[in-house]
Structure formats: C-alpha cells, structure tokens
Design goal:
The structure holds two protein chains of two kinds.
Chain A lengths: L19 E4 L2 H10 L10 H8 L8 H16 L4 E9 L8 E13 L5 E11 L2 E11 L19
Chain B lengths: L8 H4 L3 E6 L6 H10 L10 H8 L30 H10 L3 E11 L10 E9 L3 E2 L3 E13 L5 E14 L7
Antiparallel strand pairs in B: 1-3, 2-6, 3-5, 4-5, 5-6
Classes of the chains: A alpha+beta, B alpha+beta.
Chain lengths: 159, 175
C-alpha cells in the first residue's frame, strides 16, 4: 500500500521546492538526446554544434529538459502527483561543464469544479544564476489519503 | 505538404492536418531510458505493484508524449514522414518568412499513455497574428496545436507551440 506523500492541503503559496543541482557532462547531453530520440547532430557532435550552430558545445535538447522538469516536480509530489499542464520558455542552452540548478515556488493552489486539488508552480533551471528555461506547471495532488488524481478521467479530469 | 500563404490562413484555421500514426508502439525500454537519463526514480515507472495500485498498470512519463513520434534514424522502405510541426514550416514558406523561433510550448495532459499504446497525432493551426516587429525582425506569431490520441481515440495530450516567423531587420551580417 503506497500512501500519498504530499497532500494538496499541506501546500501553501510561497512554498519552495528543494533545490536540485546537477553537474552536466557530455554524457548527460547525449543520453538525453537518445532518450528523446533526437538524433540531430548538435546534441551529440561537438564539431557540428560549434561550427554549424555557433554554440560553444553540444547542448541539452528541449524534450529531455521537459523530462528533467517532470522529475523535479514529481520528486516533490511523489507518485500521486499528476501533471495537468506545463508551459516552457527557452532562454538559453545548457552545455557540458555547466551545473544546472532547478528551483521551484508554489504560486497558487485550489480545488477545481470536479473536486480535483491542484498546485501551480514557477520552476526555473539556471546556470550561474541565469535562467536557461523557465516553466509554469500545474499538478494535481490528492486531497486526502484516500484520494488519487490518477483515478480521474473524462469529465472528472479537466486540466 | 503545402505552403500556407496569407490568403490561405482563414481556410487553414482549426483544420486538422498531417494525421500520422506513430512508427512504433509505446515501449517500456524507452520509458526506462528516459527515466534513467534524468535520474527519475518515480516508482510508477519502476515498480509494477505501485503502478498497478496508483495508475492501474504501467504508464509512460507524461512529458514523453512527443518522443513516440520521433522517427527512427533509418528504417527500410520508409515513406518520407512529415516534419514534426509541418504546419510551422508551411507557414514560413507560404508567408515568405525565412527565420523562425519557438517562443513557448505548453503541454496539457489527459489520459495516461501506456506501454503498447499506438498513438496518433495531428496538427491544427489555431491563430496567426497581424504583422509585428520585435527585436528579431518583422513577422507574425502563430499558435499550432498538436493533438495526441491513443488507439481507442482517447485524447492523451495537446501541445501548443507559439512560433514567430520573421525577416531580419536591415543589413544582415554573417549567417
């Protein structure tokens, strides 16, 4: 029996998520490109990235970055957290040698018309304090130990 | 594939285009590869008992939805697939805008995606702005929705992309 680790009622506006710092290597970038099935050379071939894209090195691909944001959020919510929606804005690239740092803040909470509890967050991944991608996310959270957002579908799931 | 010019926009708005079935079914191996690449230890993706209890069986990470449509690097006898977001390229061509950037990307999640699912995608042009000038150049913003459905026709996700197609202002230095 798995019990919810984070209930909607225990979350307040202004709450911050634990910071996640991750040292990025060429392996991080290439593994992420393969995981996202992104075979384009700027995500694995440094010569191509430098000479054709004019970047200083290969860089993380956006769909894999989405997977990083999801992991960061669900590290906080536990498995009962269910993503409703995410919006990404890209500001810059992440390269080998960078330490990327994820930070998140709760900006709103509520219960929708169908009785589904949720929290909204601003999340950013930064390198040396510069935001590289920012994300606004809404995630469904259980209202009590019996509630499971994943049990919702059709009219009871209005993300 | 056909260019969308200024006179074609009204007719293209809200119309489903480029319906495409994924080249392969959603598979567990790729789910693990993705979780591993970002060190995602969510037990939904690693522990079948937890997945059974919470999500009624294994699911894929929701943000992987577009992964199931990236074609193999090579495949025998493959007809040329449309580019992901072909409508974006149709607009660039039809409106004569050589440069383009994606300014933001929203994904709304519906039914969970499960191993074995065969997903279908289609692209829908939602809006095209009047001509605007930004620091990049002069052009138009557009919003394209990409809908994903499973083999039962259930909606699993909608991605909305905001693009800006433009011509660079003034003299161009370098390329």
């Amino acid at each position: 029996m798995t019990t919810p680790t984070l209930l909607q009622g225990s979350v307040s506006v202004g709450d911050t998520l634990p910071e996640l710092a991750y040292p990025v290597t060429a392996t991080t970038i290439v593994l992420g490109a393969l995981a996202a099935r992104d075979w384009r050379p700027m995500h694995h071939d440094k010569d191509f990235a430098v000479n054709r894209n004019g970047t200083r090195d290969i860089f993380l691909n956006t769909p894999n970055l989405a997977a990083w944001f999801e992991r960061y959020l669900t590290d906080w919510t536990g498995p009962y957290g269910r993503l409703r929606r995410v919006t990404f804005r890209m500001h810059g690239s992440i390269f080998p040698g960078d330490t990327m740092v994820f930070r998140g803040t709760v900006t709103d909470t509520g219960v929708d018309d169908t009785g589904c509890g949720w929290a909204a967050l601003d999340i950013a991944v930064s390198v040396d304090g510069d935001p590289k991608t920012t994300c606004t996310a809404t995630v469904a959270l259980p209202l009590d130990a019996e509630d499971n957002p994943w049990a919702r579908s059709g009219d009871r799931w209005t993300p | 594939m056909s260019a969308i010019g200024i006179d074609d926009i009204q007719g293209a708005l809200g119309v489903s285009q480029y319906e495409e079935v994924g080249e392969f079914p959603v598979e567990q191996g790729y789910i693990w590869t993705t979780c591993s690449s970002v060190e995602n230890g969510n037990p939904l993706f690693w522990d079948p008992d937890v997945a059974e209890e919470i999500t009624g069986g294994p699911i894929a990470p929701p943000t992987m939805v577009s992964v199931w449509f990236r074609p193999h690097h090579w495949a025998p006898d493959r007809s040329t697939p449309g580019l992901p977001l072909q409508v974006h390229f149709d607009l660039k061509e039809g409106l004569g805008l050589p440069e383009a950037v994606m300014s933001d990307n929203t994904i709304v999640f519906y039914e969970p995606v499960r191993p074995g699912d065969r997903l279908t995608t289609r692209q829908i042009l939602k809006s095209v702005s009047d001509e605007k000038t930004t620091k990049l150049g002069t052009g138009r913003f557009w919003v394209i929705d990409v809908e994903y459905r499973n083999q039962r026709g259930d909606l699993v996700a909608v991605e909305s992309y905001t693009g800006f197609g433009y011509r660079r202002a003034g003299e161009e230095v370098g390329a």
